[in-house]
Amino acid sequence: MVTLLLYALVGVGAGICAGLLGIGGGLVVVPALVFSFTLAGYDPAVLTQLAIGTSLTTIIFTSTSSIWAHHRMGNVRWDLFRRMLPGIALGAWAGVYAAGHLEGAVLQLAFGVFVVLAALQMALALRPPPQRQLPGRVGTAAAGSVIGGASSLFGIGGGTLTVPWLSWCNVPILGAVATASACGLPTALIGMVANIHVGWGRAGLPPGATGFVYWPAVLGLAATSTVFARFSAGWARRLPALQLRRIFALVMMVVGLQLVWRNL
After folding, report:
1. What was the pLDDT predicted at 237?
2. Predicted TM-score (pTM) of this structure
3. Residue-range domain boundaries for the chain
């Protein structure tokens, strides 16, 4: 029960960040799970992969309601989603395979660098100007493979990468955000299946894990993250979003640098 409550609190933080700041929960969940699993004494050889696989599984629950809301408003570019889907599927599986065969310290170091870069982008509001058109079917699928691969490698939903790329290709921001939400679901589904497959029978996994998916954490996170994402979405209209994003970026910068420092 104490363990489930701990993961439920992590879900509260992830849900608030998603609803208030529009930030994918993986940037919060993965570092929180890495630290939680470390304190619990889980095997360092598998705990980072376990955190990533668990994060991707949780995104299945959080992204479903988001997709439905965007679909009802007509914001999802389903034509783009269909063109990106083959690449996303291939990239997501490849990303999990790569993560499963990296040493835990190397994977944490790579994730720490990614978090630092994401924090800089968030704090400085860096976004490439819309200066080109979307590529053809092959180019769009190739972009999807890069996004799917990086998302499954780091356990994130994909909006961190999808939104800037679509905006760069002159897709309006509402359509970019909504389409990024839609792309996050297949990434998470394939990521979950791939993490179960790649981690199946791996030595050092704790009880309650199926491959690299730790179900007690999934249950605790899913129980609160979706609810608080909806609950906190209304706060965005009343709170200073820019200042909040900068504060969150500072916290994530500290977390990312700590992950880098401990694994150098």
Report:
1. 59
2. 0.86
3. 2-263
Q: Kindly provide the b/e burial profile for residues 245-256, where b requires at least 16 CB atoms within 10 angstroms of the residue's own CB.
A: bbebbeebbebb
Question: What average pLDDT does range 192-204 have in this prediction?
Answer: 94
Kindly report the average pLDDT of the chain as a whole number.
Answer: 84
Grade residue 159 by pLDDT with cuts at 50, 70 and 90.
confident
Number of H-type helices and E-type strands within the chain: 10, 2
Q: How far apart are the first and last CA of the chain?
A: 35
Q: Give the whole-angstrom CA distance, residue 147 versus residue 91.
A: 7
Instruction: Specify the length of the chain in residues.
Output: 264
Residues 6+ positions from 145 with CB-CB distance below 8 Å? 87, 88, 90, 91, 94
User: What pLDDT is stored for residue 223 in this prediction?
Assistant: 82
Cα distance between residue 121 and residue 94, in whole Å: 26
Q: What's the CA gap between 173 and 218, in Å, rounded?
A: 31
Per the CB < 8 A criterion, the answer to whether 192 and 222 are in contact is: no
| Angle of helix 2-21 versus helix 215-233 axis, rounded to 10 | 40
Q: Which helix (H) or strand (E) holds 233?
A: helix 215-233
| Distance (Å, whole) CA 81 – CA 57 | 20
Mean pLDDT of 131-148: 88
DSSP 8-state class, residue 36: H
| Residue ranges of E strands in 105-223 | 209-210, 213-214
Q: Are 170 and 132 in contact (CB under 8 A)?
A: yes
Phi/psi of residue 213, each to 5°?
A: -120, 120
How far apart CA 164 and CA 171 sit, in angstroms, is 10
